Automatic annotation (TrEMBL):
<dbReference type="GO" id="GO:0008818">
    <property type="term" value="F:cobalamin 5'-phosphate synthase activity"/>
</dbReference>
<keyword id="KW-0460">Magnesium</keyword>
<keyword id="KW-0169">Cobalamin biosynthesis</keyword>
<feature type="transmembrane region" description="Helical">
    <location>
        <begin position="238"/>
        <end position="258"/>
    </location>
</feature>
<keyword id="KW-0808">Transferase</keyword>
<dbReference type="GO" id="GO:0051073">
    <property type="term" value="F:adenosylcobinamide-GDP ribazoletransferase activity"/>
</dbReference>
<dbReference type="GO" id="GO:0009236">
    <property type="term" value="P:cobalamin biosynthetic process"/>
</dbReference>
<feature type="transmembrane region" description="Helical">
    <location>
        <begin position="115"/>
        <end position="134"/>
    </location>
</feature>
<feature type="transmembrane region" description="Helical">
    <location>
        <begin position="42"/>
        <end position="65"/>
    </location>
</feature>
<protein>
    <recommendedName>
        <fullName>Adenosylcobinamide-GDP ribazoletransferase</fullName>
        <ecNumber>2.7.8.26</ecNumber>
    </recommendedName>
</protein>
<keyword id="KW-1003">Cell membrane</keyword>
<feature type="transmembrane region" description="Helical">
    <location>
        <begin position="140"/>
        <end position="164"/>
    </location>
</feature>
<dbReference type="Pfam" id="PF02654">
    <property type="entry name" value="CobS"/>
</dbReference>
<keyword id="KW-0812">Transmembrane</keyword>
<comment type="similarity">
    <text>Belongs to the CobS family.</text>
</comment>
<keyword id="KW-1133">Transmembrane helix</keyword>
<comment type="function">
    <text>Joins adenosylcobinamide-GDP and alpha-ribazole to generate adenosylcobalamin (Ado-cobalamin). Also synthesizes adenosylcobalamin 5'-phosphate from adenosylcobinamide-GDP and alpha-ribazole 5'-phosphate.</text>
</comment>
Length: 263
């Protein structure tokens, strides 16, 4: 019995890797029952991205690499690890919200595989702002690494607790197959661990980062999801991307304030 539970948990983690990343998982058969705990491991992908970013920053510093190379590669890391699944959701959501159409039409736009003008414009803007933030983050890389865990933990909380805008699609499928109570409890643990790590590095910055994540979450809940009658996988992807950008900008500002001796 215990072995069966352990295998289901392990398969849940592998299912998360298969769904939300490009981390290779071979030789494993995942069935519907294994998806019950998959959302619990979404932040693990964030840990992997954060560790890569931390190591990359250390490696570039040791090599004496130019700032442009460092920023370019670190900006690309999250997209390379995830395959751009969350950025795809961000772009689709941006197109839908910018259309100012009815709820039904916005949901149709989310399904459209073609990228509209607003998706391209805001996608480029996201990368420019993210790269700009990264160019200022040096001392607080540890806090920056935690943002990938926080964004995914908050997104997972919405997936299992929010009303689904439609009954088909990845988001609704994850909600139906996931354990709401277990996932919510595990996400709280991930968030507390992240806060603990950040507070150990810089308490003022940790408070600012959490405030940023929560603020974006409220915008996501009451402004974005409200327009669609609930959440979808694309909207959750929008939250991941926007919260990571805002948190990165907050950390960049914190670095500048530290240089001025303000914090």
């Amino acid at each position: 019995m215990e072995r069966a539970v352990r295998m289901r948990i392990i398969k849940g983690m592998l299912a998360a890797f298969m769904t939300f990343s490009r981390i290779p998982v071979v030789g494993v058969r995942i069935d519907k029952g294994d998806m019950k705990y998959s959302m619990c491991f979404l932040p693990v992908i964030g840990i992997i991205i954060g560790l890569i970013q931390w190591w990359a920053d250390a490696a570039f510093t040791w090599l004496g690499a130019g700032e442009l190379m460092r920023v370019a590669l670190m900006t690309a890391v999250p997209v390379l690890v995830t395959g751009g699944i969350h950025m795809d959701g961000f772009c689709d959501t941006t197109d839908a919200v910018s259309s100012y159409q009815t709820k039904e039409r916005k949901l149709e736009i989310l399904k459209d595989s073609n990228a509209g003008a607003f998706a391209v414009i805001y996608g480029v803007l996201w990368f420019v702002l993210y790269a700009g933030a990264l160019s200022e983050i040096h001392t607080l890389v540890g806090i920056f690494a935690c943002t990938y865990v926080i964004s995914r933990a908050m997104a997972a909380m919405s997936v299992v607790n929010f009303r689904a805008a439609r009954q088909d699609g990845m988001g609704a499928g994850e909600q139906k197959s996931s354990s709401k109570n277990v996932t919510s409890a595990v996400m709280i643990i991930w968030l507390l661990l992240s806060v603990g790590v950040m507070a150990n590095i810089s308490l003022p910055c940790a408070v600012a980062v959490i405030a940023a994540a929560v603020t974006v979450f409220f915008v996501y809940s009451f402004c974005i999801c409200e327009q669609f009658g609930g959440f979808t996988g694309d909207l959750a992807g929008w939250y991941v991307q926007v919260s990571e950008l805002v948190m990165a900008l907050v950390i960049a500002v914190a670095e500048l304030l530290m240089k001025k001796g303000c914090i």
